[in-house]
Specification:
Elements (H helix, E strand, L loop, with lengths): L13 H5 L48 H7 L12 E11 L2 E3 L7 E2 L4 E2 L2 E2 L6 E6 L7 H8 L7 E2 L2 E2 L5 E6 L2 E3 L13 E7 L18
Parallel strand pairs: 1-11
Antiparallel strand pairs: 1-2, 1-6, 3-4, 5-6, 7-8, 9-10, 9-11
Helix pairs in contact: 2-3
Length: 214
């Protein structure tokens, strides 16, 4: 899939309401998160294999019903079309108690108002699209606020650190320090947010198998 050089305006109609893919000026190439690679650092020390990093979790944090309100809470604008001045992608994995939590589709996309944030998802692959009409930095904290799962040094949404639970952040397999909300989203970074006991068997991915064109 070649990189898109054109702008596709957000259009109305049944096809758009059926899913955010009709809004896209680019596609993640996968809606299931199958592009994850598992050759990264481990939160514990499980044997390396080619299976997904963790089984799916029953925990579900869906995309907010009012995307525009969450984008406003993140301090970001809503646009009539995807920006093209800055067009990059990061990948996000979230693990809670040793299991993978799905990053939902349509974060940052308001299908009713036909508007889109420069920071959004189209599918459940974990690919975060950064498509802005101006060059600026975007952060993990802004995206998590759009998702309505705010992140801080001691909390992931409603989940708090303490009592044997920890919140850890990895970028390209390397553990990070400081406030995770301040993490800058960089092209092709693999970001992993890991919450739970240090003994939870999470194999932290160090990279993502990017589809051609992203």
């Amino acid at each position: 899939m070649p990189k898109f050089a054109h702008k596709r305006r957000i259009t109305t109609g049944v096809a758009v309401l059926a899913g955010a893919a009709a809004l896209a000026a680019c596609s993640s190439g996968s809606g299931t998160g199958s592009g994850r690679e598992d050759s990264g650092a481990a939160a514990t020390s499980p044997a390396a294999d080619s299976k997904p990093s963790a089984p799916p979790s029953s925990l579900s944090w869906p995309a907010p019903a009012d995307a525009s309100a969450q984008v406003k809470a993140a301090g970001l604008p809503m646009l009539g079309q995807e920006g093209q001045v800055l067009h990059i992608h990061s990948h996000l994995d979230v693990f809670v108690d040793g299991k993978a939590v799905t990053v939902p589709a349509e974060i940052g996309i308001d299908l009713v108002k036909q508007q889109i944030s420069p920071l959004h998802t189209h599918d459940t692959s974990g690919v975060v699209h950064i498509e802005s009409p101006v060059k600026t930095d975007f952060t993990l904290g802004e995206f998590m606020t759009e998702w309505n799962v705010p992140i801080s040094k001691d909390a992931l949404g409603p989940l708090k650190s303490g009592g044997g639970k920890e919140l850890r952040l990895y970028v390209n397999g390397k553990e990070q320090t400081g406030d995770p909300a301040a993490l800058k989203l960089v092209a092709h970074d693999e970001i992993a947010v890991v919450y739970g006991s240090p003994s939870d068997p999470v194999k932290v991915p160090s990279s993502y198998d990017w589809p051609e064109g992203l």
